[in-house]
Amino acid sequence: MRTTIRIDDQLLAQAKQLGARTGRTLTAVIEDALREVLSRQRRLGRRTLELTTVAGNGPRPGVDLDDSAALMDRADAAD
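User: That's the sequence. What structure does it adopt?
Assistant: Structure tokens below.
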């Protein structure tokens, strides 16, 4: 597919130099760069977070986990 894009002059020069050094066309260099960025974005989107839990019956009575100011006050009082 043919398309027109605007590229910073210095970036274009670097891409052309890379193509010349590696024996690839400018199109191939740009396509590879786009594939790399898109692949990285897909990998980042798949990150998972593992939470460690411990046995217990939840927060202590009177502790509101949605009230961050009160939680900070309790943490400061514990110090």
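Residues 9-45 form one domain.
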